[in-house]
Structure formats: C-alpha cells, structure tokens
Amino acid sequence: MKRLFGIILLCFAPVLLVQAKTEKFGTWIELTFTKKFLKDFEFSIIPEIRLQDDFTVDEYIFEGKLGYDPFKFLGFAAAYRHNTNVKKNEDEISHSAVFDVTGKTDFGRFSGSLRARFTNDTDSGDVPWESFYFRPRAKLAYNIKGMKIEPYINFEVFHSFREKEYYKGRFDIGVSRKFSKKHEIGLYYRLNDYFSDRNSIHILGINYGFKF
User: Fold this and answer.
1) How far apart are CA 119 and CA 100, in angstroms?
2) Rounded CA gap, 8 and 55, in Å?
3) Is the pLDDT at 184 greater than 80, yes or no?
4) Whole-angstrom distance between the N-terminal and C-terminal Cα of the chain?
5) What is the helix (H) or strand (E) element at residue 151, kind and residue range?
6) Is residue 19 scored above 80 in pLDDT?
7) Quick check: 116 pLDDT over 90?
8) 8 A C-beta contact, residue 85 and residue 95
9) Angle at 106 between CA 185 and CA 39, to 5 degrees
10) Helix, strand, or coil (residue 196)
11) Please, which residues have CB within 8 angstroms of residue 125's CB and are 6 or more apart in sequence?
12) Does residue 17 sit in helix, strand or coil?
C-alpha cells in the first residue's frame, strides 16, 4: 500500500511543480449523483466548481445527464449544462447541450473506450449557440487486482465546426478508487493544450461519485 501511494505521488508531482511555475493553474471539484432505472437507463446530477490558481471561484456548473446503455459495448447520453462564469462586475450565465456516443471494450484487466461528443459547450469562451464542437476522446484504464484502484489515461481533441479546425487537446492522467458499489472517489491531472499562442492550462481535479 505504501508503494502504491508513492507511485501516485510520483505521478502527480509534475502538478505541484507546474503550480509553482505558472499562474495558468486551476482546481476542479466535481460531484456525481446517479440513479439507475428501467434496467438500461440512468440519470445523473453533476454539480461542479472550478477554482483559479489563487483558489478563488472561476466557474460554477450544474449538469443533468441521461444515459442509456442498450449493449455492454455501446452507450448513449444527453446532458444539459448551466454555467455561471464568475466576473468582478456581473456573472456570465450560459447554457449548453451535450450528446455522447461511447464504444467500450475490456481485455484482461484493461478497459478501453472511444467517445464521440457533440456540444455547444463554451469551454473556449464562445458565445452560447454560436458554435458547435466535435470532441472525440480515447480512454484506457487498468484495474489493479484486489485493490479496487483504477489508474487511467485519456486524450481528447476539440474541433470547431465554425472555424473548421482542431483548436485544443486535453490530456488526463488519474486514478479512481471504489469503496463500495455506491461510493467512488478520483484524482487526476489535466492539461488543456491550445493549438495556438494561447497559454496552456494545468488542472488538478477531484471527483466523488455516489450511486443510489
């Protein structure tokens, strides 16, 4: 167990170095509450808070998500997001819709997925509904035997239909831990890397999930 925590600290050491060297650092905290119904459906409520490098609030997000998994290897989801971007004078409110199609597979203790996302998410600062994005993401996870711990990596790219170009990549490395069938916590490092002169953003993420 001590060796495991040492490995985890080693993985996240670059995050601490990044925080010391740049102001482009954030902390994202997310909670997910999920209820399964009608066998193949589930509904999730997902509140999230995003903090700047000085730990002041940057953004609030509230998301409602409906998922449908007709097959073990294929899932669909639709979500609505209410975003509050905190400003000095007046907060900015925006709304976005998300549609996902996800293919999944297992091989040994590894699990992989490929997700296609279509959204008007204003992650890049665009005015809501003025642009739509295609965001494919590949993810690979490994389940550590007898420990209920799952390290993972994933990579996602952002394509703007309006600009007709890929403008950003997102890389995650993290670990999740299940405590029972109902509780799960996670920790990850995220790099938002823009394919332009815009500075990259380094993020430390913390999430907690509860299944009713």
Assistant:
1) 9
2) 23
3) yes
4) 29
5) strand 149-160
6) no
7) yes
8) no
9) 70
10) coil
11) none
12) helix
Q: Are 151 and 134 in contact (CB under 8 A)?
A: no
**Residue 198 has which token pair?**
């815009």
Taking the C-alpha atoms of residue 202 and residue 22, their distance in angstroms, rounded to an integer, is: 9
At 32, which helix (H) or strand (E)? strand 25-37
So what's the pLDDT on residue 123? Answer: 62
Query: Which of 5-19, 78-92, 120-134, 147-161 shows the lowest per-residue confidence on average (mean pLDDT)?
Result: 5-19
For Cα atoms 150, 75, 162, give the angle at the middle one, nearest 5 degrees: 100
CATH number for region 2-211: 2.40.160.40
Q: How far apart are CA 207 and CA 184, in angstroms?
A: 8
Taking the model in full, what pTM does it have?
0.83
137, two tokens = 């993401």
- Asked if residues 142 and 109 have their Cβ atoms less than 8 Å apart, the reply is yes
Cα–Cα distance, 80 to 82 (Å, whole number) = 7
Q: Partners of 196 in the beta sheet?
A: none
Residue 145, both tokens: 């035997």
